[in-house]
């Protein structure tokens, strides 16, 4: 029988109140809190906190606090990824971001989702889908990236966009819903 964490990572319905998942989220929140309070602290401390929080890429990432995530360990960053202030990453599945990607302020990555059927939703089960962002992407401020989305290399996502479908490489896409221009 699969653990709730295994179900979560497989994109299946899972129980988020599972003890292991609650503990992992609490650890991530504690690390985010310490990171967010370290704004004036030395860079070495901030780097250690990011290394403890993220699945990969902390060694070259630049993240402006405040930063929030569900688990952190499912955030996989390439080299030189930049997050501006006030970003949120709901990483119930892998959130993979390629090299040299720029993420504007208040961008939100929603890897988690809930069942469409109300009876199943009432049961407390939820699921998620991975998000993949290519290299050299620029995501404008206040954009929302929905579960299961892939954004290709060198794409530009306009500020305030709600990305509900895949965006190809080299595209400029804007709006709600986000569309290629």
Give a summary of the structure in a few sentences.
With 181 residues, the chain is of the alpha/beta class.
Described by strand count, sense and barrel closure, the largest sheet is: 7 strands, mixed
Number of strands: 19
Structural domain count: 1
End-to-end separation: 47 Å
Helix percent band? 10-25%
Strand % is: 25-35%
Q: How confident is the prediction overall: mean pLDDT?
A: 95
**CATH architecture classification:** 3 Solenoid
Taken in chain order, the helices and strands follow as HEHHEEEEEEEEEHEEEEEEEEE
Explain how this protein is built.
The protein has 181 residues and is an alpha/beta fold. It has a single domain (4-180), classed as UDP N-Acetylglucosamine Acyltransferase, domain 1 (3 Solenoid). 23% of the residues lie in helices and 27% in strands. The protein is built from 4 helices and 19 strands. The chain has helices at 4-9, 19-37, 43-53, 118-122, and strands spanning 14-15, 62-63, 67-69, 75-77, 82-83, 87-90, 95-97, 102-103, 108-110, 112-113, 125-128, 131-133, 138-139, 144-145, 150-151, 156-157, 162-163, 172-174, 179-180. The strands form 4 sheets. The protein has a 7-stranded mixed sheet with strand order 2-5-8-13-16-18-19, with no helix packed on it. The chain has a 5-stranded parallel sheet with strand order 3-6-9-14-17. Strands 4-7-12-15 form a 4-stranded parallel sheet, with no helix packed on it. α2 (19-37) runs antiparallel to α3. The longest helix is centred in the first third of the chain and has 19 residues, at 19-37. The chain is globular and about 40 Å long. It starts with a helix and ends with a strand. The mean pLDDT is 95.
